[in-house]
């Protein structure tokens, strides 16, 4: 577990229950008063069983809930955030605990997002004014809250954020992580990301995030995760979002395949409403991914990057592998009944299948290397991604 995500668990969903990141300047300027938001966030229709069923149907293996975003509001009854949490005000409910129970009931791993810094907290602002020479916020608010979160809910993932204004020495990250990995209730199971100080991103952590919507474009030696959002303009919920501003299903699946082929995990954000519901347009995306994974999931779950991640054949192709089985993903509907792949090295025992199609496909070796595959064009409908399975190839 240390230094690497669990193999095969490459898909997750993250839920934002805070003020959107794009709101920072207006919040700081005092145009908005944070306390006025709490009564409007009621989550009266929040049904954790319904949410968990959706995440399971999406094919996710882990779920990450925002326990506290940069505005400091906690979605559990934090004793260190008096009257600025979901139990004392707003929903009057322990959202972290209720969702965790429902998610784990379905054998999904449960993670918690937590922002280190808080826009408004007077202790943080005082520490910042001192050039982070003081740590009043860290020892009186941040660390006690983190210890409480871990001890109470025992998360499988801690997704840290809000670290970039100060070094890890200010956040006292090494001390907390030493406790987490050696003495905490989750010391043998927990996974953490790399956002523990302004000097840590893409350098330290069980897995790397590096930056939002990160894609290295190459195979990395260290486990990494791409976090992105269905809404391309926000990590929260926007009442004025437009369909053209959302990732459509084919793009999401292609993005997932790119990520897995390069050895990464894929974390997809959907923003719930203040009433505690997941908008139908987000639900449609999640269930669509789940339907695709029911057919193509064997090429994703527990797969490994192959010796070749992509090739420019007659169509753009991306690869994953499991031992002597190689999976080739087609992003474009074939326009002719043959497909040439140059990367696989065949043998007399090579078999070729199209996932979701019952019959073996005919193929022939190419003298210069690779193979030519005969395709049943009648089944290539829609605009999704199709997967070829090649057994006994190198």
TrEMBL record:
Subcellular localization(s) per the UniProt record: Lysosome
Known InterPro entries for this protein?
A: FUC_metazoa-typ, Fucosidase_C, GH, Glyco_hydro_29, Glyco_hydro_29_CS, Glyco_hydro_29_N, Glyco_hydro_b
Q: Which domain of life is it from?
A: Eukaryota
Give the GO biological process terms: fucose metabolic process; glycoside catabolic process; lipid metabolic process
Q: Where is the Alpha-L-fucosidase C-terminal domain?
A: 309-390
State its Enzyme Commission number(s).
Answer: 3.2.1.51
Listed GO CC annotations? lysosome
Enzyme group, top EC level?
hydrolase
Major site of localization recorded for this protein:
other
> Entry's SUPFAM superfamilies?
(Trans)glycosidases
Give UniProt keywords alphabetically.
Glycoprotein, Glycosidase, Hydrolase, Lipid metabolism, Lysosome, Signal
Residue ranges constituting the Glycoside hydrolase family 29 N-terminal domain according to the UniProt record = 35-298
User: What's the subunit arrangement here?
Assistant: Homotetramer.
- In UniProt terms, what function does this protein have? Alpha-L-fucosidase is responsible for hydrolyzing the alpha-1,6-linked fucose joined to the reducing-end N-acetylglucosamine of the carbohydrate moieties of glycoproteins.
Protein family: Belongs to the glycosyl hydrolase 29 family.
- Any idea what this protein is called? Tissue alpha-L-fucosidase
What is the originating organism of this protein?
Albula goreensis
């Amino acid at each position: 577990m240390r230094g690497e995500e669990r193999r095969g668990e490459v898909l997750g969903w993250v839920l934002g229950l805070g003020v959107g990141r794009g709101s920072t300047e207006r919040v700081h300027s005092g145009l908005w008063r944070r306390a006025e938001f709490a009564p409007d966030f009621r989550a009266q229709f929040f049904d954790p069983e319904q949410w968990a069923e959706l995440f399971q149907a999406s094919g996710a293996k882990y779920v990450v809930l925002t326990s506290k975003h940069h505005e400091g509001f906690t979605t559990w009854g934090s004793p260190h955030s008096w009257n600025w949490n979901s139990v004392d005000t707003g929903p009057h409910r322990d959202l972290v605990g209720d969702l965790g129970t429902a998610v784990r009931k379905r054998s999904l791993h449960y993670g918690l997002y937590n922002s280190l810094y808080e826009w408004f907290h007077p202790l943080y602002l005082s520490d910042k004014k001192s050039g982070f020479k003081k740590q009043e916020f860290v020892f009186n608010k941040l660390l006690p809250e983190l210890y409480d979160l871990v001890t109470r809910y025992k998360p499988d993932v801690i997704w840290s954020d809000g670290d970039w204004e100060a070094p890890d020495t200010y956040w006292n990250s090494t001390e907390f992580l030493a406790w987490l990995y050696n003495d905490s209730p989750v010391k043998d199971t927990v996974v953490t990301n790399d956002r523990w100080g302004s000097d840590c991103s893409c350098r330290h952590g069980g897995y790397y995030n590096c930056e939002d919507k990160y894609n290295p474009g190459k195979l990395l030696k260290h486990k990494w995760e791409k976090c992105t959002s269905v809404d391309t303009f926000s990590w929260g919920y926007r009442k004025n979002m437009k369909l053209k501003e959302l990732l459509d299903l084919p793009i999401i699946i292609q993005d997932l395949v790119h990520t897995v082929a390069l050895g990464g995990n894929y974390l997809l954000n959907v923003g719930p409403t203040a009433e505690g519901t997941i908008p139908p347009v987000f639900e449609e995306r999640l269930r669509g991914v789940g339907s695709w994974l029911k057919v193509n999931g064997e090429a994703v779950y527990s797969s490994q990057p192959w010796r070749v991640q992509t090739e420019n054949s007659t169509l753009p192709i991306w690869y994953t592998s499991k031992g002597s089985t190689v999976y080739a993903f087609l992003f474009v509907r074939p326009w002719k009944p043959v497909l040439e792949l140059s990367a696989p090295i065949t043998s007399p025992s090579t078999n070729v299948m199209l996932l979701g199609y019952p019959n073996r496909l005919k193929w022939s070796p190419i003298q210069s290397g690779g193979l030519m595959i005969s395709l049943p064009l009648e089944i290539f409908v829609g605009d999704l991604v199709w997967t070829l399975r090649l057994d006994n190839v190198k």
